Amino acid sequence: MTERPRPMTARAAHRRPPRVELYERIVAAIHDGTFPPGSVLPSEPALAGELGVSRPALREVLILLQEDGVITRKHGVGSRVSHQLPPRGLERLSPVEDLLDTPHVHGRRLAASRDLPTDFSAHHLRLSGSDSTWFWETLLAADGVPACFAHEWAADDATLAEVVPDGPALLDRTADAGRGGASDRSMGAVLLAATDAPLTGRGTVGATLLGEERGAAMERSAQTPATLVTQVVSWGSRPLFAAKYLYPAGAPLLHVRQRR
């Protein structure tokens, strides 16, 4: 009997959750041809043994892979690799700073506090009314011109720590770092730099006006039209942070690259 190739050796992890590591091992095996598109994965007991993990841990990761469209699962048939895989790289998100079409982006933190959730954050982050979570407001300037208001909310500490083990402490340390200067980063930039987890984003685009307070901060009229981008970043079914990004008319263009 020909032995199945076993290239799925765990990559060196830096405090990443075991589920993240397992997810990435299976995805890597799919992309390197060990489990090609359309193939049926080994049974859960066989695959768990091959990977050296418990069946409950594997089952949870298979559910995440199904949610992300990497595999399909059917009772009595097992798990099958999708014929058309999600394009590689879509699960790798970029911070909002990278979308502004210039390398010269600087941030200034206007607010950083732990608050009870708003309707927006409670809905998108599945927070209860008693959960306390970080809220950041950061003004980003591109080439010295105010370009984006970033309003961002983190998930509750327990959820955040599942994906970014030191996430709560990291936000504590960086919330006020450099406040009033020009070195503050968005919450998205801080969290994305701290994890290799395969994250996904879901967003909407709309239109609004700057309003009095944001207009004053940007030295623009309150009636200035603005593009409003909302985004929720998740690992599998677990939301990590939610944001509203506001770009006034005349701000530098957003630079979006299609990944292949």
TrEMBL record:
CDD domains hit by this protein: WHTH_GntR
UniProt entry keywords in alphabetical sequence: DNA-binding, Transcription, Transcription regulation
SUPFAM superfamilies: Chorismate lyase-like, Winged helix' DNA-binding domain
Span of domain HTH gntR-type: 16-84
Database matches in PROSITE patterns: HTH_GNTR
InterPro entries to which the protein is assigned, alphabetical: Bact_HTH_transcr_reg (IPR050679), Chorismate_lyase_/UTRA_dom_sf (IPR028978), Tscrpt_reg_HTH_GntR (IPR000524), WH-like_DNA-bd_sf (IPR036388), WH_DNA-bd_sf (IPR036390)
Name listed for the protein in its UniProt record: GntR family transcriptional regulator
